[in-house]
């Protein structure tokens, strides 16, 4: 299968590129030739690569900055996603759209399912919801995959931020009243590939299309996540710090974060047969990779 992926340097794109092999070819297209803030004729851009499926992983992801640049976020995550899906329809191939828990308001007391009412509370969430709607309007041949709390052994993410902070201090204050499901980028990449394979192999199956939740199994809060990171790091002689549990009110940000980012992935497991790995097991693999690289930026 030849998978065309939008984006070039993101955590999921990087993991997808590493997943290539064993019959999977991954072509990643990003700026400057592909700019979702001002998409041109994407079908003509994509066509020479002869993709079997397209994954839209490119996005405006600066959650706080989006409050200052709502139009740019909407252009990239909304209209840009729609343009990718329209190109996929023109080429007659399925599209996989990567979305987020931020389409919800975070007030539900239990994990969210795909049919729950959406209600984003910030510019980033509104832009990603607009992208979901644009993709669905452009083509029926789509799978929208919502994920949350994405991290990897490389790049800018919570795991690497915690390790960097622990390198210079004995205690780190971490929010403890936001709950979610940490999602390891290589596990997301594996699930994305399997979804794309299903779409390509079974164009007649409507149940493979639509919205699915895709995040690590189990749940924690940010402080619990940090505690586990430090425990694993300390066990291998890496940086560690004590975690001071604080509230969201103690750490104000321009954009409001959902208090509940937990996603129920039962539909993905039932329809595609994809069980997402437990977040603790995935974090262990991530930490081993960081240890092997010997670098914490």
Helix and strand topology:
Blueprint: E1 2-6, H1 11-19, E2 25-29, H2 42-46, E3 53-56, H3 70-91, E4 95-100, H4 123-138, E5 142-147, E6 150-151, H5 158-166, E7 171-175, E8 179-180, E9 183-184, H6 185-201, E10 210-213, E11 220-221, H7 222-235, E12 242-246, H8 266-272, H9 279-293
Parallel strand pairs: 1-2, 1-3, 3-4, 4-5, 5-10, 6-9, 7-12
Antiparallel strand pairs: 8-11
Helix pairs in contact: 1-6, 3-4, 5-7, 7-9
Structural commentary:
- This protein has helices at residues 11-19, 42-46, 70-91, 123-138, 158-166, 185-201, 222-235, 266-272, 279-293; strands at 2-6, 25-29, 53-56, 95-100, 142-147, 150-151, 171-175, 179-180, 183-184, 210-213, 220-221, 242-246.
- By secondary structure, it is α/β, with parallel strands linked by helices.
- It has one domain (2-156, 182-218, 261-278): Rossmann fold (3-Layer(aba) Sandwich), CATH 3.40.50.
- The strands form 4 sheets. Strands 2-1-3-4-5-10 form a 6-stranded parallel β-sheet, sandwiched between helices. The chain has a two-stranded parallel sheet with strand order 6-9.
- Strand 3, helix 3 (70-91) and strand 4 (95-100) form a beta-alpha-beta unit.
- Helix 1 packs across helix 6 (185-201) and helix 7 (222-235) packs across helix 9.
- The protein is globular, with a radius of gyration of 19 Å.
- It starts with a strand and ends with a helix.
- The mean pLDDT is 96.
């Amino acid at each position: 299968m030849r998978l065309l992926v939008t984006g070039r340097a993101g955590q999921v794109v990087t993991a997808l590129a590493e997943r290539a092999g064993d019959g999977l070819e991954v072509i990643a297209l990003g700026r400057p030739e592909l700019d979702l803030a001002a998409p041109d004729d994407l079908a003509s851009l994509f066509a020479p690569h002869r993709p079997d499926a397209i994954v839209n992983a490119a996005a405006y992801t600066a959650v706080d900055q989006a409050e200052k640049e709502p139009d740019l976020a909407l252009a990239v995550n909304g209209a840009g996603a729609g343009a990718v899906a329209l190109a996929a329809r023109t080429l007659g191939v399925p599209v996989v759209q990567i979305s987020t828990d931020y389409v919800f308001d975070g007030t539900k007391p239990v994990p969210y399912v795909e049919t729950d009412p959406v209600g984003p509370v910030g510019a980033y969430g509104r832009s990603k919801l607009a992208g979901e709607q644009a993709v669905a309007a452009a083509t029926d041949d789509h799978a929208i995959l919502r994920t949350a709390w994405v991290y990897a052994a490389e790049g800018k993410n919570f795991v690497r931020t915690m390790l960097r902070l622990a390198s210079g201090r004995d205690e780190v204050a971490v929010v403890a009243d936001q709950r979610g499901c940490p999602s390891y980028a290589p596990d997301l990449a594996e699930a994305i590939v399997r979804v794309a394979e299903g779409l390509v192999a079974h164009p007649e199956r409507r149940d493979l299309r639509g919205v699915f939740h895709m995040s690590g199994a189990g749940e924690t809060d940010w402080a619990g996540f940090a505690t586990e990171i430090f425990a694993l790091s300390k066990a291998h002689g890496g940086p560690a710090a004590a975690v001071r549990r604080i509230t969201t009110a103690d750490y104000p940000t321009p954009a409001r974060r959902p208090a509940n980012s937990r996603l129920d992935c039962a539909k993905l497991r039932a329809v595609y047969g994809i069980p997402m790995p437990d977040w603790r097991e995935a974090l262990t693999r991530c930490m081993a990779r960081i240890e092997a690289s010997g670098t914490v930026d």
